[in-house]
Predict the structure.
Amino acid sequence: MTVRKAAFSPAVPSAVVAVALAAGVVVSLDAREAVLATLAVQGGGLAVVGIGVASRRRGHRILGTALAVVGAGVIVGAFDLFVDERHALSYTIRFLPGLVGIPLLAGTLLPVWASGSRLVCKLGTGGVFLTVVFSGLFSAVGELHLLLAAVATVVAWDAADNAVGIGEHLGRAATSWRLQVTHTTGSAAVGLAGVAGIHLVRHVAVSDLSLAAFALLFVALLLLLAAIRG
């Protein structure tokens, strides 16, 4: 039973791409030392959790459980590191969802759950997407930056979901990296084409697009990306 669970873990290449994109989005949105330090501590905690889970699967239940608990404590403690920093409330509101989402996403792709979890992937990337939305609401970044960050977040979700799907159907050890690269590259290409189209319309239009029109284009792009993932 233990071998079966390990074999059907999420595919590694897509999992790595998903976590890297999600972390890159958060860092790109004007991240300061508090965010970088929190992510670094979370990464260490996730590594300890991963070692603990691996130890449990090899029969070292007590040691594995202890390591997993310690790692989880480190991840939770990282949030205190972020909240204790002196910065504006708006900054905390912007980045806290992403800092919650990244360990959720990474945790299910390690995976702490043997076969991964599509729901947790959605929650994780959803937290990152909230960071993008809040950054737009607080006018912290420009429109093009927001569009690119949104596309990267959707591609991260798509890659995570694809990692879980390939793990379920082909197994973690299957040689499917070409399939994964092609899938993720296609999603990214469609997203970038959509961003280029919106950016072109924004600058070629006789009059500037209203905020409502820009929001509709933004939502249409996200719906298109969500559609092509199937």
Remarks:
- The longest helix spans residues 177-204.
- The two ends are 31 Å apart (CA to CA).
